[in-house]
Predict the 3D structure of the following.
Amino acid sequence: GLLSRLQTSAPTVQTLSSSKSFSQNIPSCLWKLGRLNHVAIAVPDLEKAQSLYKDVLGAQVSETVALPEHGVYTVFVELGNTKLELLHPLGEKSPIASFLQKNKTGGMHHICIEVDDIKAAMTELKKKKIRILSEEPKIGAHGKPVIFLHPKDCHGVLVELEQA
């Protein structure tokens, strides 16, 4: 009857083979990429930026901390799932000073992603021809080792890796 005709005339649906999972195409690493730690924003006026996030948007904002080794003042804005890092130049040779010369109103400076083994990450990234902007990790704003990857090797984004 009707049921047998529907069963024979219905188009067959093919499913994609799951014999090869997506993860099999990714080479195994000796280190693992973790969560997004923060997005850093260079600001020409640190007090105004702090006020925007604290007084206007109602975020929890840290005290200003000077990091002379990096040439910056830094403030962290706590969000539910990550942080924003507000950066302001500390001294004339600050990388943030040169960034602000090109971007007068400020803007996104870098993203920071956690890694479980920064030394292994450095070794493997160098083998993959990714330039690292320092020979050794420096201690970052969270008191943990950090490195920066060259933006030209990361599609125009300055990437900071931080030991988790």
Q: What stands out?
A: Residues 54 and 61 are 6 Å apart (CA to CA). The chain has one domain: 36-163.
